[in-house]
Structures are given as structure tokens and as C-alpha cells.
């Protein structure tokens, strides 16, 4: 018997919620202390550490393309989740060993273990992330209006874990030893796998009661079986295109190796899938909507992901963190966004469902345009807060206000984007297209690290610039993000009517 009904959500959603809770605890726990570990323990300079951070968080969202392809064509979602989860647990334990040897005079071993840990985490995430996101949509029948709400609830699982992680891992890392922060992140990943293994067979089922993710997605829908994933020709075009794009970006434009790889795949991946000969005209239109919105998603994450680098620098160095005699760790600010999401996600989810019942629920592009606008307003707030900073540091109000506005913006853009990809993509390409969607997030994260490397040093005599605009102080630095996110919001809003038409009735 199906566990679905039209008034609630299937129990499988909450199993995936709990699984993602601990996986995100693992990821955000490590991320909360990563930039501080590099600058305070390994003694790397801020610009170099920011670029490592950007490369890591970018590649974390690049490898889902590989994981999505393997799931669609060979393994299915469940096996991919297990393999990915085990790799991520190993990666966190390698980070633990890196920090364990970091106090030695020779930090070479710590750096080697850090690189190994980062690599394992990157590939593990690639198998885990697109497949668990895809399974959320598979719990519901096609056209079910509950999907937007389901992805918002799922997003609560992501952010409940992200809220707790910096509090525990950040406390252990900053106040005890960074190795214990990384170790707790590894334990969280193991808990994620145990929950999924114990409950998947009973609850992670489709609308007709069949178990989800058992085999390749190419055979999951008999009515949509016109070949799955990339053909041999498309794979040749993909590999050749990536090599060509990488060469131009790296050798001609001087972008670092990882940046060139991320940008090259983001350029080529969508082009290859949109040229698949099995796609109908309507399917192509819908995929074009996803691809075009990916451009704006890049700008969103480039600005939003300052949280893990430049905003952490601002929290540690320019913010008054003294609260009634208690000095709050800088990493705790990374819990603000997640905490606000846990509070606001059910409210916004209920709002979308109510608007849907009244027939006035805006199409996804309109919501995402509003999300970008809120991002711009958040940076405008902190720009004014950084214009004149007292000797004691900027008020905690500015970072708190920024994270509050950015949280609402994220809820208007990110879970809606996951739901949109699931609804607009043909079933045979679901995990693969989810991986391509994450290419935009990868590019945004990599650019976030590049932008963080421009964070102004008040002692410097020369200042960096971007597009001819000199970043002389924190105010001008944050105004750059206001300009990028504000312009992206306006342009997307102007395109919304055309994009809605190309969605052919899907909202």
C-alpha cells in the first residue's frame, strides 16, 4: 500500500531528512573550522587558504555529475549513497589525522593527509549528494504539488545538521583541538549511513509502494526508456569539450587547474545533455530553463558562500563577539543561517502550499529572482555596517541581519531549484541533470573562494581590483556583492515570463 496521501508527506521523506541531517552535520562541521585550521594551525596566508577553500567547496559540487551518471546508468541511487557516505567518513578521519600531526615542526605530513582527506570527501560527496536529492522527488507521483514543500522540509534536514555542526565542531576545533572537530564530523557521517541502512527498505518507497533506488534510473520508468545518460558519442564530445575548455581557461586565461576544470565542465556539461537526440521539443525547452537559471545560481552561490571564508574573517577580526563576558567563537556565525532555515523553512513551505491551493503560486524563476534580491539587501546591510567600525568591533547585528536576509533568499532559490530540476527533467536523466545543476553550485563556490582572496588587508599599501573597481576597504568589498546579486536579480526577473512559457505548464 502506498504511504502517500494528499494531506501529508510520505514517511520516507523523514528518513531521507534524518540521513541528510547527519551527512550535512559532517560537511558543515568540517567547513566551519576548515579556513581557521588552515590559517591558524597550518599558517597558510588568507588568499591561498581562500583559494583552497573555494577549490574544495567547488569540487564538492562538481563530482555529483559523475555520481549522477553512475547512478543513472549502472548503480542506482542506494548503492551510490552508500559508497559516497563511506568515502566521506574516510575523508573526515583523514582530516582528523592531519590535525593530529599539525603541531609537529614539519607540517608536510599534515598537508599530505589534508589533501588526501579533501580528495576523498570530494568524490564521496559526488556519489551521495545528487542521489539522495533525487530520491526525495521520487517519493511523489508526477505533478504532485507537494514537491516544493517536500524539498523545503528536506532542506530543513540539511540545515538542522548545518546548525548543530558549527556549535559542536566549532567549539571543539577552536577551544580544544581542531582534530576533535574533524573527528566528530566523521562520526556524524557514520550515523547518516546507519540511519539510511536501517530504515530504507521499509520507508523509502515510491507512490506505488515499490522500493526506490534499487537499480539504474534508466529503467525506472518504462514510459521514458529512450536510452539513459550519455551515449558513446556524447561522452566523446563531453571529454573533448572539457579538455578544450580547460586548455583555454587554464593556459590562455591563467585560471588555476581546479578552477579551469570546474568552469570547463560547467560550460560543456549542459551543452552535451541538451543535444541528446531522444529529447522532444518540450523536454528541450524545460531543460533550457534549468540551464539558463544555472547562470543566475552561479552568482547566488558566489555571493552566498562568503559565509565560509570572508565573512568568517569578518566575524573573527572585525566583529564584537563579546556577549555578556562570553567570547563567541567566530565559527558559530555559520550556525546562524542554518538556525534561521530551521525556523523559517516550515513557514515558507506552508506559504507555497497555500499559494498553490489558491492558484497564485509564482513559477520557480520568480521565486529565485526574489532570492537574489534578498541576497543583495543582506550585503548592502553589512556594507553600511563595515563603513565605520568601532574600536571594539562591528555590532553583531550586521552579521545576524545579513544571515537572516540571506536565509530567506536561500529558501526562495535553492530548494525551489532542486524541486524544479526534478519536475522539469525526463526521468531517464534525473540524477544526471541533478549533477549538472550542481555544476552551477560548484562554479559559484569556486568563485566564492576567488572573491574571498580579494578580502582587503587594512595594512596593505596596494589594493586588489575587480572589473576596474578598486577594493580599498571592507565597504567597497561588500558593495561588489551588492552589485553582482542585484544585477542578477533584475535580469532574471525580466526573463521570468519567457522562462515560465518554456516550462510548458510546470510551475
Quick gist of this model?
With 507 residues, the chain is mainly alpha-helical. It is built from 16 helices and 4 strands.
Q: Considering the protein shown, what is the CATH homologous superfamily of the largest domain?
A: MFS general substrate transporter like domains
What is the beta-strand fraction? under 5%
Q: Domain count, please report it.
A: 2
Mean pLDDT across the residues is: 87
- Order of strands, widest sheet: 1-2
What's the CATH architecture of the largest domain?
Answer: Up-down Bundle
| SS class | mainly alpha
- What is the CATH class designation of the largest domain? Mainly Alpha
Number of helices: 16
According to CATH, the fold-level topology of the largest domain is Growth Hormone, Chain: A
Rg over CA atoms, rounded to whole Å, is: 22 Å
Q: Could you give the count of β-strands? A: 4
Distance between the termini: 29 Å
- Give unreliable regions as ranges: 1-5, 219-228
Q: How do the helices and strands follow one another from N- to C-terminus?
A: HHHHHHHHHHHEEHHHHEEH
Helix content: over 70%
C-alpha geometry: globular
For the largest beta-sheet, the strand count, sense and barrel status come to: 2 strands, antiparallel
Amino acid at each position: 500500500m502506498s504511504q502517500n496521501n494528499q494531506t501529508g508527506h510520505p514517511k520516507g521523506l523523514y528518513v531521507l531528512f534524518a540521513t541528510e541531517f547527519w551527512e550535512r552535520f559532517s560537511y558543515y562541521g568540517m567547513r566551519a573550522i576548515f579556513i581557521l585550521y588552515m590559517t591558524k594551525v597550518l599558517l597558510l596566508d588568507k588568499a591561498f587558504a581562500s583559494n583552497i577553500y573555494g577549490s574544495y567547496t567547488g569540487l564538492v559540487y562538481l563530482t555529483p555529475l559523475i555520481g549522477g551518471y553512475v547512478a543513472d546508468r549502472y548503480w542506482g541511487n542506494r548503492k551510490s549513497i552508500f559508497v559516497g557516505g563511506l568515502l566521506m567518513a574516510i575523508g573526515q578521519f583523514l582530516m582528523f589525522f592531519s590535525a593530529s600531526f599539525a603541531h609537529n615542526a614539519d607540517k608536510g605530513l599534515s598537508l599530505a593527509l589534508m589533501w588526501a582527506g579533501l580528495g576523498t570527501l570530494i568524490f564521496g560527496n559526488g556519489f551521495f549528494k545528487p542521489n539522495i536529492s533525487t530520491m526525495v522527488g521520487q517519493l511523489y507521483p508526477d505533478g504532485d504539488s507537494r514537491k516544493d514543500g517536500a524539498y523545503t522540509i528536506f532542506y530543513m534536514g540539511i540545515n538542522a545538521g548545518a546548525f548543530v555542526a558549527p556549535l559542536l565542531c566549532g567549539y571543539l576545533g577552536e577551544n580544544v583541538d581542531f582534530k576533535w572537530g574533524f573527528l566528530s564530523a566523521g562520526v556524524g557521517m557514520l550515523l547518516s549511513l546507519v540511519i539510511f541502512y536501517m530504515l530504507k527498505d521499509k520507508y523509502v518507497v515510491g507512490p506505488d509502494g515499490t522500493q526506490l533506488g534499487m537499480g539504474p534510473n534508466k529503467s525506472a520508468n518504462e514510459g521514458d526508456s529512450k536510452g539513459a545518460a550519455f551515449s558513446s558519442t556524447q561522452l566523446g564530445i563531453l571529454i573533448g569539450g572539457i579538455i578544450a575548455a580547460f586548455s583555454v581557461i587554464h593556459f590562455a586565461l591563467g585560471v588555476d587547474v581546479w578552477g579551469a576544470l570546474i568552469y570547463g565542465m560547467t560550460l560543456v556539461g549542459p551543452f552535451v545533455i541538451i543535444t541528446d537526440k531522444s529529447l522532444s521539443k518540450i523536454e528541450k525547452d524545460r531543460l533550457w530553463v534549468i540551464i539558463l537559471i544555472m547562470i543566475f545560481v552561479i552568482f547566488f552561490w558566489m555571493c552566498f558562500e562568503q559565509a565560509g571564508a570572508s565573512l568568517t574573517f569578518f566575524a573573527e577580526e572585525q566583529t564584537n563577539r563579546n556577549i555578556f563576558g562570553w567570547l563567541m567563537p567566530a565559527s558559530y556565525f555559520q550556525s546562524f543561517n542554518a538556525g534561521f532555515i530551521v525556523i523559517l523553512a516550515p513557514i515558507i513551505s506552508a506559504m507555497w502550499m497555500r499559494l498553490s491551493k489558491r492558484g497564485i503560486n509564482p513559477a520557480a524563476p520568480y521565486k529565485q529572482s526574489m532570492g537574489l534580491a534578498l541576497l543583495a539587501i543582506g550585503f548592502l546591510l553589512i556594507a553600511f555596517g563595515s563603513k565605520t567600525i568601532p574600536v571594539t568591533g562591528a555590532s553583531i547585528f550586521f552579521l545576524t541581519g545579513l544571515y537572516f536576509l540571506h536565509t530567506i533568499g536561500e529558501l526562495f532559490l535553492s530548494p525551489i531549484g532542486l524541486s524544479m530540476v526534478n519536475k522539469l527533467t525526463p526521468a531517464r536523466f534525473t540524477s544526471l541533470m541533478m549533477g549538472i545543476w550542481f555544476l552551477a553550485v560548484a562554479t559559484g563556490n569556486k568563485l566564492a573562494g576567488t572573491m574571498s582572496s580579494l578580502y582587503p588587508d587594512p595594512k596593505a599599501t596596494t589594493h586588489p581590483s575587480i572589473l576596474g573597481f578598486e577594493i580599498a576597504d571592507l565597504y567597497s568589498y561588500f558593495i561588489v556583492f551588492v552589485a553582482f546579486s542585484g544585477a542578477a536579480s533584475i535580469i532574471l526577473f525580466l526573463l521570468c515570463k519567457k522562462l515560465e512559457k518554456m516550462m510548458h505548464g510546470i510551475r
